[in-house]
From TrEMBL:
The lineage of its organism: Bacteria, Thermotogati, Deinococcota, Deinococci, Deinococcales. Keywords: Transferase. This is Glycosyl transferase. It comes from Deinococcus indicus. Pfam families: EryCIII-like_C, Glyco_transf_28. One of its GO terms (molecular function) is UDP-glycosyltransferase activity. Residues 295-396 form the Erythromycin biosynthesis protein CIII-like C-terminal domain. Residues 3-141 form the Glycosyltransferase family 28 N-terminal domain. The keyword ATP-binding does not apply.
């Protein structure tokens, strides 16, 4: 089978689909992955064919408007900036998608590439499998990933409704751009107001560990909770300075917010350093897209742009991060406590899940982040033996799963 995966967004949005593509290739399928040029090396390094999709997500995230919206957790402002970006990108993605899917027997996409993939599926007559790394099918068991976790207090009916509304929010934000791309590039009529209809019903994959999110009892047989989609660990060689830092004292904590940005990275860095001094912790500070500063940090803090999570996280005492689905998966698989500092989107959902599992403290929302709140969370994390034991046990369960192989088996069993 010839499979085209479409994955747009940050590295955390793309990497699980590279892992899934690798599993499909091992299962005997020809795999092409369509993503931004920034991820060409990631895709081809895994041995997959790469198809470029124009656009620069990092440029959008680093814009002053998005920095301010993310810092305040303002979903309306975040959606406005995102909607403008999709208006500019939709025509390009439709053009590039036609090339990427030109000979495909099957399309696979998660939330980041789903709207583009749905239009391509209709244009080319190629079926689409939805493959998500957040729960994206209605259930009474828990709220939709972009709804406040407190929605669950209203009961199962509210949870189920929130999933329907989650899909609608995401679709309506993209709908006008989709209509233009359909009309000007694909020669299609606009999709119905509630959203595109699938070419044919196919299973939905969720690349989430059932040890982290048990399978809801009200999901039908078409919903598959496969386990996380991790790339095989590379034989990565750390820089000598990092190795020396890790060996120079007790395990540090890892602090980084991935693709999330702040209006003043230097101020954020200063607050984090003061917090570390207050809690007496050493740290590896991952600057990421937010550009956390390396200036004027004490010798108890090691600053670096990025380190493979599967190498670093098992070597630290705890992981502090924004709660993106991919980083949360890596942090939990490492078997160490996680401190979630959610900015927006599905990040509060994962922060709530970490707390409920007892493998991390209550989330510290980005707007409430200061030296006191983070110090309190970290102090509790590194002194709570029960939390450390639960995190270690959960990591063992997650590492015993093989979500990539399970997902590839589902796709391989399709009758197209």
């Amino acid at each position: 089978m010839r499979v085209t995966l479409i994955a747009l967004g940050s590295r955390g949005d793309v990497q699980p689909y590279v892992a899934l593509g690798l599993g499909l290739r091992r299962a005997g399928h020809a795999v092409r992955l369509a993503s931004h040029e920034a991820f060409r090396a990631l895709v081809t390094g895994a041995g997959l064919e790469f198809a470029p999709m124009r656009g620069d997500v990092q440029e959008v995230v680093n814009s002053p408007e998005m920095r301010a919206a993310l810092a305040g957790g303002n979903m309306l402002a975040i959606n406005r900036v995102s909607a403008r970006a999709t208006q500019q990108g939709a025509l390009l993605w439709a053009e590039d998608g036609l090339v990427a899917a030109r000979d495909a027997d099957l399309l696979v996409a998660g939330i980041g590439g789903m709207n583009v993939a749905q239009a391509l599926s209709e244009k080319l007559g190629v079926p689409l499998v939805e493959a998500h790394v957040v729960p994206f099918h209605p259930t009474r068991a828990f709220p939709g990933a972009i709804f406040p976790p407190a929605t669950a207090r209203l009961g199962g009916w509210a949870n189920r409704l929130s999933h329907v509304l989650t899909r609608q929010v995401m679709w309506q934000m993209f709908r006008s751009a989709d209509s233009r791309a359909r009309r000007e590039v694909l020669g299609l009529s606009p999709a119905p107001l509630p959203g595109p209809r699938p070419l044919r019903p196919l299973p939905t994959l969720h690349g989430i560990s059932p040890a982290v999110l048990p399978r809801p009892a009200d999901w039908d047989a078409a919903q598959h909770l496969t386990g996380y989609w991790f790339l095989p660990q590379d034989a990565w060689t750390p820089p000598p300075a990092l190795e020396a830092f890790l060996a120079a004292g007790p395990p540090p904590v890892s602090i980084g917010f991935g693709s999330m940005t702040t209006p003043d990275p230097q101020a954020t860095t200063r607050a984090v350093v003061r917090e570390l001094e207050r809690s007496g912790q050493r740290a590896v500070l991952l600057s990421g897209w937010g550009g956390l500063s390396a200036a004027d940090v004490p010798d108890t803090v090691f600053v670096t742009d990025s380190v493979p999570h599967d190498w670093l996280f098992p070597r630290v005492a705890a992981v502090v991060h924004h709660g993106g689905a991919g980083t949360t998966a890596a942090g939990l698989a490492a078997g160490v406590p996680n401190v979630i500092v959610p900015f927006f989107g599905d990040q509060p959902f994962w922060g709530d899940r970490v707390q409920r599992l007892g493998v991390g403290p209550a989330p510290v929302p980005r707007r409430a982040l200061n030296e006191r709140t983070l110090a309190e969370a970290l102090t509790r994390t590194v002194t709570d033996a029960g939390m450390r034991d639960r995190a270690a046990a959960l990591g063992t369960r997650i590492r015993a799963e093989d979500g990539v192989t399970r997902a590839a088996e589902v796709i391989s069993g399709l009758k197209l």
